[in-house]
Amino acid sequence: DAKTTQPPSMDCAEGRAANLPCNHSTISGNEYVYWYRQIHSQGPQYIIHGLKNNETNEMASLIITEDRKSSTLILPHATLRDTAVYYCIAGPNTNAGKSTFGDGTTLTVKP
Amino acid sequence: DGGITQSPKYLFRKEGQNVTLSCEQNLNHDAMYWYRQDPGQGLRLIYYSQIVNDFQKGDIAEGYSVSREKKESFPLTVTSAQKNPTAFYLCASSFTGQGLSNQPQHFGDGTRLSIL
User: Fold this and answer.
1) In DSSP terms, which residues pair with A105 in a beta bridge?
2) Does the distance separating the beta carbons of A94 and B56 come in below 8 Å?
3) ω into residue B8 within 30 of 0, thus cis?
4) Nearest-CA neighbor of A70 among A5, A2, A23, A4?
5) In angstroms, rounded to a whole number, what is the distance separating the alpha carbons of residues B19 and A90?
6) A49 touching B, CB under 8 A?
7) pLDDT exceeds 90 at position B46
8) Measured between CB atoms, which of B44, B56, B94 is closest to A94?
9) Cα–Cα distance, B48 to A100 (Å, whole number)
10) How far apart are CA A82 and CA A107, in angstroms?
11) Confidence band (pLDDT; 50, 70, 90) for B49?
12) What are the CA-CA distances from residue B109 to residues A82, A102, B65, B72, B88 (Å)?
């Protein structure tokens, strides 16, 4: 799996968009980008994933650069309940059993 | 509702004892995984299984053992050989196989293991 780099922490004002960056400069052509989040003392929750195209679902949007070396997770209207650790993973597929969840980005949404 | 159930939520172990953590899923997923999480850190893979009666070591398998006798169940045993077992243990599952290789993992709510 490609190594990913994320900032350790970010703050966001409630109601504003939260933009969480992830660098995966060594990603290969068949590797997807996945995002999960973990609220304290719970299991990680899947958010979204993509290969080349930008993706959107009810939770978030994923913007992948054209060269696929970086991506941004966008929470369009952050709420206090979005405070969590966000993990970015790049790999051929999570089923390969080699996914590594790094330390992620701790997002704090403030009133 | 479909999901992954881990039990118990909290577990205490005396030094020198083996202890088994339960993980059950009713999502009809082929693959199952065990991760360890230490405070303030990310998840590290212990073992994974892509099919019944088969499993592979992850990055930190020493001191742990697993079995996969049924598709729905993937118990993890923390043996006395694991010198620092206090941690948060997470089980996950996913689809696998041709055409489903990009399916995400679904996680349980974890078991917190402590040494008495």
Assistant:
1) A86
2) no
3) yes
4) A23
5) 33
6) yes
7) yes
8) B94
9) 13
10) 8
11) very high
12) 18, 19, 20, 16, 10
- Rg, C-alpha atoms of chain B: 14
Pick the residue from chain A with its C-alpha nearest to B46. Answer: A97
Residue of A nearest to B104 (CA): A94
Per-residue model confidence (pLDDT) at position A95:
46
Calculated CA dihedral for residues B54, B57, B58, B64, nearest 10 degrees: 110
- Express each pLDDT in B57-89 by its tens digit: 988 999 999 999 999 999 999 998 888 999 999
* Residue A23 structure tokens: 């660098």
Q: List, in sequence order, every residue forming a beta bridge with A106; answer none if it has no partner.
A: A9, A85
**Element (DSSP H or E) covering residue B88:** strand B87-94
* DSSP secondary structure, A46-77, as one string: EEEEESSS-EE-SS-EEEE-TTSSEEEEEETT
B77-90 exposure pattern, b = at least 16 Cβ within 10 A, e = fewer: ebeeebeebebbbb
